[in-house]
Known about the structure:
The chain is an alpha+beta fold. The protein contains five helices and six strands, in the order E-H-E-E-H-E-E-E-H-H-H.
Amino acid sequence: MIGLKRGFVELTSHQEEWDKNAKNIIQVLKKILGNTAVDIQHIGSTAISFIYAKPIIDIVVGVYDQNDILPYIELLKQHNIIFRGEDVEGQLLFIMGNFEKDTRTHHIHVVKWNGTEWNNYINFRDYLNSHPEKAMLYDTCKKKLASQFSDNRKSYTAGKQELIERLLKEAYIWKAGL
């Protein structure tokens, strides 16, 4: 299953189709963006094979300059990849889904390649995939918050922030080999 109504939280166990779907979307993005995309990666909880996740595929597109993506907005729209603007500082958001049913299937984050946001996404994913005990800590936190905030994704997301920041610090130290 891929897709979730906007604003809601529902977690499911890892699905093989998430990885396959992410690879397909990455190929579509590479074809559309060409060399403008320095790198494109599957990120987020759907990229961590042994934890529960919202069934929304997160993809990060690394570019040298975010303005480089702007000429592609209409072409991406023709492929049902819709520009939503700067959702948080330092990244542009594109979404995919069934908009008539207000369902989101993909969040595509465009960030500066090798910048803070890029490194956070990649390091977090790699750290949790390499440290199952840390991934399970994150999984437990997410499940608790999902049961509390099933109809309030903003509160769910805010509730994870402290743990995410701690895990990002650990991931940075791990990546640096300190």
